[in-house]
Prior knowledge:
Elements: H1 10-39, H2 45-54, H3 56-84, H4 89-115, H5 131-170, H6 175-197, H7 199-205, H8 211-226, H9 231-241, H10 246-254
Helix pairs in contact: 1-3, 1-8, 2-5, 3-4, 4-5, 5-6, 6-7, 6-8
Amino acid sequence: xxxLEGRTSPRTLARVGGVLYLVIxxxxxxxxxxxxxxxxxxxxxxATARAIAASEPLWRAGVAGEIVLLLCAxxxxxxxxxxxxxxxxxxxxxxxxxxxxxxxxxxxxALYLVSALFPLGxxxxxxxxxxxxxxxxxxxxxxxxxYGFGVSLVFFGCVCEVLGYLIFGSGFLPRALGVLMxxxxxxxxxxxxxxxxxxxxxxxLFPAILLPAFVGEASLCLWLLARxxxxxxWRARASAALPPGFAADRGAQRS
Length: 255
């Protein structure tokens, strides 16, 4: 709790978390709608290769945006750890570990988006491949990214489930947000496992399966931005979580 004591109020920290969450949501939507959905032609490697080659700066900007998103996700992970540790430090740490794994997998998967550019370049060694082969290699990299991202969402689904539980029992955030985050986590888990177990099923579920997840995350983001947390209740939970005599010892040290 030293991060907050005498430096930053929990409400301010929660609003910082809301800003980070908003950046993550906006960048995620832009990357999906303005970049990948615009340039990737489903099932057509040649058309996808032409679109990416013609808009390489846009593709690279999308990759850069995903890296910024992940940087914000790391910072947001710390915010949730600090805010929710008074409810259960063990579970807050569990959510942190799940999120670290999710971020690591998503970051590694982003490299596939960079590697998709390699076969579309002008290096001399690419002359050994015909245009159809080069397009297929680029498309395979994009497909690999999609599956890697799906696996990262399995771990993020676990994050949402733990956060939902902590929020529901916190007392300083609305219980409804906890329920919404738990539903979001379930949606991410279903989507991720469907992608691995049955691509056809995943195609039928997407994007409807992720709409409740978007509602849950957006609701938490907006609440953190607008209201933060109930400071009085947060401090009461934080004090109750301290070992017996710890608060008195700290007070004596300050006097």
